[in-house]
Amino acid sequence: MCQNVCDSGESTDNIKEWDRKHDSSVKRDIILDAAEQVFSDKDYHEAVLDEVADVAGVSKATLYLYFKNKIDLFLSVAERKLCELNEVILKSTADCSDPVATIKRLITDELTFFSDNAAFFKVIHDQRFNLQLRAQVNEDEIRERVMPLMFSKINVTAEVIKLGQENGVFQAVNPKEAAFMLTSLVHTCLLLLNLAPEDVVLTDKAELVEKIFLEGLLMRKT
Amino acid sequence: MCQNVCDSGESTDNIKEWDRKHDSSVKRDIILDAAEQVFSDKDYHEAVLDEVADVAGVSKATLYLYFKNKIDLFLSVAERKLCELNEVILKSTADCSDPVATIKRLITDELTFFSDNAAFFKVIHDQRFNLQLRAQVNEDEIRERVMPLMFSKINVTAEVIKLGQENGVFQAVNPKEAAFMLTSLVHTCLLLLNLAPEDVVLTDKAELVEKIFLEGLLMRKT
Amino acid sequence: MCQNVCDSGESTDNIKEWDRKHDSSVKRDIILDAAEQVFSDKDYHEAVLDEVADVAGVSKATLYLYFKNKIDLFLSVAERKLCELNEVILKSTADCSDPVATIKRLITDELTFFSDNAAFFKVIHDQRFNLQLRAQVNEDEIRERVMPLMFSKINVTAEVIKLGQENGVFQAVNPKEAAFMLTSLVHTCLLLLNLAPEDVVLTDKAELVEKIFLEGLLMRKT
Amino acid sequence: MCQNVCDSGESTDNIKEWDRKHDSSVKRDIILDAAEQVFSDKDYHEAVLDEVADVAGVSKATLYLYFKNKIDLFLSVAERKLCELNEVILKSTADCSDPVATIKRLITDELTFFSDNAAFFKVIHDQRFNLQLRAQVNEDEIRERVMPLMFSKINVTAEVIKLGQENGVFQAVNPKEAAFMLTSLVHTCLLLLNLAPEDVVLTDKAELVEKIFLEGLLMRKT
DNA sequence: CATGAATGAGACTTCATTCAT
DNA sequence: CATGAATGAAGTCTCATTCAT
Fold first, then answer.
1. Of all protein residues, which has its CA closest to the C1' atom of F6?
2. In chain A, positions 105-164, which contact chain B (CB-CB < 8 Å)?
3. pLDDT of residue A94
4. A contacts of B218 (beta carbons < 8 Å)
5. Pairwise CB contact (< 8 Å): A169 & B218
6. What is each CA distance from A120 to A77, A134, B213, C81, D31, in whole angstroms?
7. pTM, rounded to two decimals
């Protein structure tokens, strides 16, 4: 189906399909790169295909050889990005013998990833972007193509939390909801970075999220 | 009462145009109402002025008598809404003798307000919308018009947190950053409500935010 | 509804609506005229709205103030033309005391009308054009907007034939089918005119149709 | 047998390219078949070469190895079809000892042929299609390629009529014009069949044309 | 001979904005 | 103050045609 569905694992050998469609895929990726750049610069509606074509160095008509639509192009970019994110997350949580350490690793890695891809993720912040485009296209297509990818990330995080709860380390809250909260906090860090970008360091912010999310604002009685 | 720029914060002197516009401001409000409705239904670019005019019951040209632009109209709606929010926040924090209780009140009231205005706030989620429109207009205009209003809210919250810290109740974190985090968590609640809207109650979610934000995920040793 | 539905009678006083929408209707008619000209010059798909706008002396966007679509514009032109035709037919058959004379009058008048509007009617020859556009739009819209107008003409002719049959003047054939045949023969005359346009006279062709349709090819025994 | 330009008329020498193309002509025919199918389904402009290539099972570029143009392809299909028709007509009129019987045979055979090929002939109804496409290509090319084929059919019919006139069986009308009329009536039958396709039989319609064309609408005095 | 890939040209449609009345 | 009418500019998408391989 979707030709860039992530492998969700450690698989590195994507040289398997190098024979038949190798340079067709190359062009497709060039376009995806260009689109990612343009969609990162502008709102979905402000991004124009002319610019994507320009950046990709192809004709506008060529875009339609590889993607059905503008929205299809956008969703393809989003899919690719979310797959990358999921891989990061999976790698972070591969070893969850220590739930607290895992959560900390998760926060750092996710924050790093978001920070690296901040421009693009402004658009599809959390699950919200399915609302943003609702009037534009068949809502189902969006829902079916990206929601699973988003939930994949949430579910992985929720699993770690559940594990911690079973170990008696974490409080009894709905794990999935807590996972959402965590993602949200990480996103907020990006905002903080944007607002005062001169001197702040990424790790500082990671610590803030850790502190709030793990310990809360209230003073702990020793 | 303030006309469309709230006086609830630092800025006080916006009574300058009180004289001339006077009665025409009623029509201005009608248009704002219509615009709010339309902008709540659709994305900024999907919302069309034709519909705003229709809903307001005026001609499209009339919109330009009261607002410079489409973006001006949008920002005016946002301003008005944020003013309302600031008033809510101020009321919530009027008495902050007990910081913990105040934070709880703040969470509940903000959540209620967001919930009541969910449709509109999906568009200007957090402080992010200044990024979304950056290509469209002079970024400075947006920054200058809405950022102060957003920070007003953040600052009020931060004050409460600072107070709590001085009282030895709250941990030592950057109060402003913590305030951002709180807002973010409240927004996330809206998402949770949207994702499973059948049975969930608002207050349940408020409790979740309280728990996470105040106590954190880690088990407290008794 | 459709604002140029024919009055189907002798009504000449269309000054009734001269107050409110008088110059709006004027512009609409200008566009219709331009469209008729362009659609007469070219196939539906070859006719481009740019040219219609040019000929009408308005902007392309203006077309969309008065017509929903390209197809709507085309159908509006067709409706107007068919209404004119129906009026001609009705006038021709107003007095049908003598069926033979009426048929002859009908042939002459219809032929004259087609001849005057030959360019446009090339496209919607007979009932056939509903097939030509079938893939383009909601077939129902076409069917509902123009079929009645086409059948109106056929029915009137069929009535005359039925009358002649009742008087014992005409043979026993299906009147409606015969009416179709007559229309077809009249159209064929246009072809003949086109093929050898130098010296032929309209009335000669009318006589041919009369002869064939009324008397047939076979010699009559005296 | 002739390859794609029929020899059934005046033109005889089209065997010039018989040598080189030889076996490639089988693919050429495959393409023609595909094109006929697609052009029968849709309007000339709605038919797209992509689909022709698909149906033919060849690449779109291959079409251009066998045909100069889209219009060339279309005209080639039309030529082939008209050649078939001409053969039918010639067979029908091979024996014209009895003009009346011959005309009847002609009507039946032509009607059958049109009925079998109704889909395609909707497009090039009568001789009219040379008008439909005039803006598209050099009008002369169309005129020169298909008009002779059309006239071939007309001429054959006209010969039969002339013969009948010489035998004193038919009235004195222009034979060629009468032949046109006849063709037109046959086409009209197809329309009638389309309009009420449930119960009608082809032969019934043939009788109607016979009656009208041969005897006319007027009652014959015995 | 065959084709996958690419594209230029152009069509329809939309919408924020202006202006004469 | 209000608006009906008009439009320039722009955007998405299509398709016949070409060309290197």
1. C62
2. 122-123, 125-128, 131-133, 135-136, 161, 164
3. 92
4. 100, 169-171, 214-216
5. yes
6. 9, 19, 28, 55, 48
7. 0.84
pLDDT tens per residue across span B106-135: 999 999 998 888 778 765 553 344 334 444
Residue in C with minimal Cα distance to D182: C185
Domains for chain B: give ranges and CATH numbers: 20-67 (1.10.10.60), 80-215 (1.10.357.10)
Q: What is the mean pLDDT of residues B145-158?
A: 87
Amino acid occupying residue C160: V
Q: Check if the beta carbon of residue C107 is closer than 8 Å to that of residue C92.
A: no
Please give the structure tokens belonging to residue D204.
């019934």
Residue A211 carries which DSSP code? Answer: I
Structure tokens at A94: 């591969």
Is B215 within 8 Å of A216 when comparing Cβ atoms?
yes
- Residue D92: count of CB within 10 angstroms of its CB: 22
**Tokens for A16?**
């398997």
Sign of CA dihedral D30, D36, D39, D45: positive
- For chain C, give the percent of residues with pLDDT over 90: 46
The SS3 of residue C176 is helix
pLDDT at C217: 74
Instruction: Answer for the pair C96, C102: CB distance below 8 angstroms, yes or no.
Output: yes
List chains adjacent to chain A, taking adjacency as at least 3 C-beta pairs closer than 8 Å: B
Rounded-to-integer distance, Cα A148 and Cα B85, Å: 34
- Which of B141, B163, B195, B211 is CA-nearest to residue B203? B211
- Beta carbons of A174 and B131 less than 8 Å apart: no
Chain B, window 38-67: residues with a beta carbon less than 8 angstroms from a chain A beta carbon: 42-46
Q: Which residues of chain B have a CB within 8 Å of the CB of A155?
A: none
Q: Which run of H or E residues covers position B132?
A: helix B129-132
* Span D69-100, pLDDT tens digits: 898 999 899 899 989 999 999 999 998 889 99
Interatomic CA distance for residues A80 and A34, integer angstroms:
13
Q: What is the pLDDT of residue B129?
A: 41
Q: Of residues 22 to 51 in chain B, which lie within 7 A of strand F by their beta carbon?
A: 24, 27
| Distance in Å, alpha carbon of A103 to nearest chain B alpha carbon | 11
Compute φ and ψ for D23, nearest 5 degrees.
-85, -25
Question: pLDDT tens across B12-58, in order?
Answer: 444 444 444 445 688 999 999 999 999 988 888 889 999 999 999 99
Tell me how crowded residue D142 is: count the other CB atoms within 10 A of its CB.
21
What per-residue confidence (pLDDT) applies to C138? 56
Q: Which residue has the tokens 């779109």?
A: D60
Question: Looking at the C1' of nucleotide F9, which residue has the nearest alpha carbon?
Answer: C61
Q: What is the pLDDT of residues C21-31, one digit of tens each?
A: 455 689 999 99
- Whether D35 sits with its Cβ under 7 A from any strand F atom: the answer reads no
The pLDDT assigned to B50 comes to 96
Q: Which 37-66 positions of D have CB less than 7 A from strand E?
A: 58-62, 64-65
Whether pLDDT at D103 is above 90: yes
φ, ψ for residue D52, nearest 5 deg: -55, -45
pLDDT tens across D41-74, in order?
888 888 999 999 999 999 999 999 999 989 899 9
Q: Do C212 and D181 touch (CB under 8 A)?
A: yes
- D-interface mutation test, from C177, C195, C202, most D Cβ less than 10 A away: C177
Higher-confidence position of B199 and D90: D90
